[in-house]
Amino acid sequence: MPMPRLRLTPDVSHGPLDGAWWPRCDALELELPALVGSLDPSSGTVTRVTVGTAAWPDAPQEVMAPGHVIEVVLTDSAAEAHAITVDCGTVGRWELLVIPPDEPAGVATRLLTAAADPGNPLSAPRLLALAESSLDGQDAWESEGGAGPR
Q1: How many CA atoms lie within 13 A of 103 on its CB side?
Q2: CB 119 within 8 A of CB 16
Q3: pLDDT of residue 89
Q4: Mean pLDDT value of segment 30-47
Q5: Which InterPro entries does UniProt cross-reference here (predicted)?
Q6: Which of 28, 64, 94, 135 could lock onto 59 through a cystine, CB 3.0 to 4.6 A?
Q7: Burial letters for 11-25: b for 16+ Cβ neighbours within 10 Å, e otherwise?
């Protein structure tokens, strides 16, 4: 199983996101086990994920991960449109930007970095919209907090 393209906020996040994930395809049942397997085991067992129906229209209600089943909750919430919430029971929770699989590598790399920045103030939909609209204009990207490491 290939390692997921994932970047998490070091230590504690102070923004709406705890990092970003760039899956290779839109089949959640294929991608989720690798994501779950790459998370720190001390955070507990992933019991549930919440994903937007727009990004994952064919997501199953459950996904098998090594040693357990993960419940998949679908939502139409605009805040979850480009995000995944990973719940580890009462132990931990991550809110990750989900970068579309077909996103160009340069844009995806910038998004992985920006979403994992502890000072990032932007939500997943806003960060993705900024990145996609600023393919021509770096100034807008940076003025909204989408710059790489500072």
Answers
A1: 26
A2: no
A3: 73
A4: 86
A5: DUF5994
A6: 28
A7: eebebbbbbbbbbee
Return the amino acid letter for 70: I
Using one digit for the tens of pLDDT, what is the confidence trace for 80-101?
Answer: 778 999 998 766 788 999 999 9
Cα gap 22→66, rounded to integer Å: 21
Which tokens sit at 98? 């989900």
Greatest pairwise CA separation for the chain in angstroms: 47
Yes or no: say if 88 and 40 are a contact pair by the CB < 8 Å rule.
no
Residue 69 corresponds to which amino acid? V
- pLDDT, average across residues 43-64: 90
